């Protein structure tokens, strides 16, 4: 593939140091602020209101609000009622998208779960995933939110899995290829970047 050759010739880059923000659509800015600031304790740090979408020069009035995490990153939302549809806010399957926030330890996880349930938000768990332990809830926008801790097995499991991650990925791709081709077509699966189909 031409893209692989182009990447091989590109100068090496320093890996990204973290996520600055992940952004999602919200039904209502104040409702979202209540959940992320009042319930989850993430301070509202930026509220940007604009009438024109930067880079597109298209008139679409919106608010972009940001809640700051303890590591300096943000979870952000767009409140844009003009293009919003009720189905945007149906509960998302966790396979489609979810947010996982890390907390300090199991005592903190249990304390957060108690606080969240006391606020009237159903917070289920904890679920032990072997390398992490998590509790789960939904935000007002249908987005599943997870609070998680690393278990004592976390680092050894990650180190072991890293040794054969590409092999496992190749095996999974081979195992699921026929189903995906039937559903999406080979061209969609094989597409990289701006390749012509």
Structure, explained:
This protein is of the alpha/beta class and 197 residues long. Helices cover 34% and strands 29% of the residues. It has 6 helices and 8 strands, in the order αβαββββαβββααα. The two termini are 13 Å apart.
Cα distance spanning the termini: 13 Å
Radius of gyration, in Å, reads: 20 Å
Approximate shape: globular
What is the average of the pLDDT values? Answer: 93
Q: How many helix segments?
A: 6
SS elements, strand count: 8
Main-sheet strand order equals 1-4-3-2
Q: In percent terms, what proportion of residues is strand?
A: 25-35%
Poorly predicted parts: none
What about the largest sheet?
4 strands, mixed
Share of residues in helices: 25-40%
Content-based structural category: alpha/beta
- Please state the oligomeric state of the protein chains shown: single chain
Run of helices and strands? HEHEEEEHEEEHHH
């Amino acid at each position: 593939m031409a893209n692989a050759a182009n990447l091989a010739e590109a100068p090496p880059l320093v890996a990204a140091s973290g996520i600055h923000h992940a952004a999602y659509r919200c039904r209502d800015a104040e409702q979202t602020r209540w959940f992320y600031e009042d319930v989850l304790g993430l301070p509202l740090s930026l509220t940007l209101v604009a009438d024109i979408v930067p880079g597109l020069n298209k008139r679409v009035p919106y608010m972009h609000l940001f809640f700051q995490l303890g590591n300096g990153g943000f979870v952000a939302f767009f409140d844009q009622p003009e293009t919003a549809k009720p189905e945007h806010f149906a509960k998302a399957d966790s396979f489609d998208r979810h947010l996982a926030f890390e907390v300090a330890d199991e005592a903190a996880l249990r304390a957060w779960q108690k606080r969240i349930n006391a606020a009237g938000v159903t917070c289920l768990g904890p679920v032990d995933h072997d390398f992490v332990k998590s509790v789960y809830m939904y935000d007002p926008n249908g987005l599943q939110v997870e609070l998680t801790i690393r278990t004592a097995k976390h680092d050894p499991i990650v180190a072991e899995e890293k040794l054969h991650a590409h092999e496992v990925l190749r095996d999974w791709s081979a195992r699921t290829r026929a189903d995906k081709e039937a559903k999406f077509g080979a061209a969609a699966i094989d597409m990289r970047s701006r390749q012509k189909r």
